[in-house]
Design goal:
Layout lengths: L4 E6 L5 H12 L5 E5 L11 H4 L7 E4 L2 E4 L1 H11 L13 H16 L2 H6 L2 H5 L9 H17 L13 H11 L8 H11 L2 H14 L1
Parallel strand pairs: 1-2
Antiparallel strand pairs: 1-3, 3-4
Helix pairs in contact: 1-3, 1-8, 1-10, 4-8, 8-9
Length: 211
């Protein structure tokens, strides 16, 4: 499995899903090339990217002659292609814990639309002030806090005994509420995840894209 790996991301490094795959590759300590795609210019709808990304979306991964899109699917592929213990596991070893991670990943990508819209990733990565939350935004925030509080206890820095990829995904969503009333336990959890070296490397790319 020593074939070259290329990760296609948005050129502004704002996609939380591209970040998730970047963190996954970095945590596994895999060598990979990052290729930015200019979404504003419509590069994701052009060749040669379209022939590499079946759904025309970022992130996209190329591993040798195999191309794949959708971040959670890419993470599962990487965990099978580069398994523990040789590489850091992205998913827990227990069947139920793995199911919980997949449940959380699917939910974070399919629900909370009002929160994603009203607290875009510019508020996470650029520190911009988001608009005041609407009723729908408040409802989504309350739902996020309820679910996260069920999974994260006081002093808990990971969802499970060891880090998993859903820790990064959940932390990004919680960071959307950094300017709001986020419970101390969840704020400490998200801040701890933000300090992981793999996350810090993504933030360096994000800062460079702004300069």
């Amino acid at each position: 499995m020593g074939a070259p790996i290329t990760l296609y991301v948005d050129s502004l490094f704002l996609s939380p899903y591209a970040m998730s795959v970047y963190v996954a590759l970095t945590e596994k300590q895999l060598p990979f090339e990052v290729r930015p795609i200019d979404l504003d210019a419509g590069e994701h709808r052009m060749q040669p990217f379209q022939c590499r990304a079946l759904t025309g979306r970022v992130p996209a991964l190329t591993h040798a002659d195999f191309n794949l899109t959708e971040s959670s699917v890419i993470a599962e592929y990487l965990d099978e292609a580069f398994p523990a213990p040789q590489h850091t596991a992205l998913y827990p070893s227990g069947m139920r814990e793995r199911a919980r991670v997949r449940q959380l990943q699917a939910w974070l990508r399919s629900d909370l639309a009002a929160l994603r819209q009203e607290r875009p990733t510019e508020t996470v990565f650029y520190g911009e002030s988001g608009q005041p939350l609407s009723d729908a935004g408040h409802a989504a925030a309350a739902k996020l806090i309820q679910v996260a509080s069920h999974l994260v206890g006081v002093g808990q820095s990971n969802l499970f005994d060891d880090w998993c990829i859903a820790d990064t995904d959940l932390a990004v969503m919680l960071k959307r509420l950094a300017q709001d009333d986020l419970p101390d336990t969840l704020r400490a959890y998200a801040d701890a995840q933000w300090q992981r070296p793999a996350v810090q490397k993504w933030l360096e790319h994000n800062a460079a894209a702004r300069s």
